[in-house]
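User: You have something folded?
Assistant:
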Amino acid sequence: MRGERVMLDADLAALYGVETRSLVRAVKRNITRFPEDFMFQLTPEEVASLRSQTGISSSSHGGRRYRPYAFTEHGVTMLAAVLKSPRAVQVSIEVVRAFVRIRPVNRTLSEGGAAKHSLARESDERTPINSRHGAKRRRSGVLVSRLWG
């Protein structure tokens, strides 16, 4: 969204085990910690596009009554300081690790496109399951697919 990898407030609230409104309230109390490159509120057009892609219900049908907030990697990291629960800290660590793991994939795709992606996938398929690095890549892929899937 807007050329950034982001996570929506409702998804982060679910990961952190808090209600979305509690997460948003905590962010608003600490708004100076969240500049635009950390977090932004979706425009009405972005919300409409998201609704059509994901089936989010409209406010007239009991859904959200405000536009969702989107958090970048830095915003997700900052949430741990705002929420201050042990679970928030652990989740933030895992989310940041996921962002870090997908960085090389994004760089590879942008540098060489589908051909390099295909070579990387073939390399992963040839990596033995008991290989420490191969297992980490597979776990990273599972986490990223859960977060971005």
